[in-house]
Amino acid sequence: MQKSSLFSAVLRLALLYGALLCGNAVFSAEEAVRPDVGKLLNKAQELHGLKEYAQALGQIADVEKIGSLNPLERFFTERMRAMVLISTDDQAGAAKTLEAALASERGSEADRMAMTENLVLTHYRAKAYEKSAAWAERYLAQGGTNAAIANVQIQALYLAKQYPSAAALLDKQVAEAIAAKRRPTDVQLRMLASAYQQSKDDANYLRTAKIIARYYPKPEIWKELIYRVLARNDFPDALEADSNRLLRATKSPIKTSELLAQAKLTLSTGYAGEAFDILSAVDRNNSSLPDSELTRLDEMLAKVTRMRHEDEAALSSLVARMDAAKEPHLLVNAALSLSFLGQHAQALAMVDKALSKPGLRQPEMAKLRKAYVLVRADKREEALALLEAITGASPEAELADLWRIFLQNSN
Fold first, then answer.
1. Between 20 and 30 A from 182 (CA), which of 47, 97, 249, 326?
2. How do the domains of the chain map onto residue ranges?
3. Does the pTM exceed 0.90?
């Protein structure tokens, strides 16, 4: 998954609340801002407003020369310094001074929350991602109301390569959005998938990829999901044609050479009607199609067209032969042949007959193929109900799950 920033629009700096409190700013009987300190800080504030940042820093340096600043004076001095450093884009320096201001344990609650928010952002901009994430956690724990800080925390954790922590927070956001019947954002989901991938958490990566397919069903994600099923060690060769059907249904990117191979595979199992459909859909006007492939396409199309006509002519005898068939799997194969020739009602009756017989080999595969016939017959709800019934961890069940997600989220 591609890394992308969730939060470029969020990295604003919070206002530092409150005017400077001078001689009458008392936090205890002994503590106040002395007039000479207050005068210099007020001048620094005035210069900051005029964007005369160097001169403002000079006034702050003069404060330091007074020496022996009490905690309240230290708070206002560091807060003023942070304001200037933020304005000059000295993010690391601003973060250091904000931490010093907070360490004084002075200032109003609103001012301290604003400084904490700024600490999250200044550390982030200074690429101190672990510190940014830690301050974001503190800000949110203290009741901070800027919801965007939660996103900055996730981004910071991700950039700090703390992928499991980033994934945990993102997963919670995604789950809350889905529970509230809101669509998670594409970027949220792709970052979550990437975090799980970086964490080598394959099970959660796959779960997230399926959520992406549900909400943002792009052909590339479908191809990845289907190829993951194909790559299973227990994937049976007989299921390859079924996975190819889902590839085509989801409009996954398939090269012409791959389509020719799919047509050859389905023809080898006796489905001339399906091979005809595959080859007829190839774009002959594609300028990138080599002459050798175009010639091969024409030859194969001529062959399957002839075979398809022969199958159509033999429909009645096929049905009669299947009525007498003793092997249930032959009925399933014949049902698919009928469906590819447009005889969906007969196909469904035949596959139901196969499913009712004892000794049917690979019943899950037979149900999957019945679901495909139902899709071709425009019986989507019945197909979904059947797919829901194919459970477990088999390749057939995983392919059925992908079909279900596709049917539920496509027109």
1. 249
2. 35-162, 166-222, 239-408
3. no
